[in-house]
Amino acid sequence: MTNPSSIQMNIEQNVIQKLRQLPIEKQQELLDFAEFLYQKDALKPKLQSIKGLCADLKIDITKEDIDRAREEIWENFPKEI
After folding, report:
1. Closest Cα to residue 65, out of 55, 51, 77?
2. pLDDT (tens digit, 9 = 90+) per residue, 24-71?
């Protein structure tokens, strides 16, 4: 089994090796692209549970409350024949 940290080091070493072989303009492009990827990942909204979304509202939602709401929502939903 391969160690994930050794894979990461190998990737980093390969990227640095390729980077050093590029002209300065291409190095800047690579840096810009790396920054784009970083920002794209950083801007992804983090998923939260219903409890997490309502935490600042000081509302205590129980599992039973959620189950009851689901039943009410699906109650009038057409059933397959």
Report:
1. 51
2. 999 999 999 999 999 888 877 776 676 677 777 877 778 898 899 999
Round to whole Å and give the CA distance between 81 and 75: 16
* Contact in structure between 19 and 30 (CB atoms under 8 Å): yes
The per-residue DSSP string of 24-75 comes to HHHHHHHHHHHHHHHHHHHTSPPP--HHHHHGGGT----HHHHHHHHHHHHH
What gap in Å lies between CA 77 and CA 70, rounded to an integer? 11
Encoded tokens for 35: 């920054």
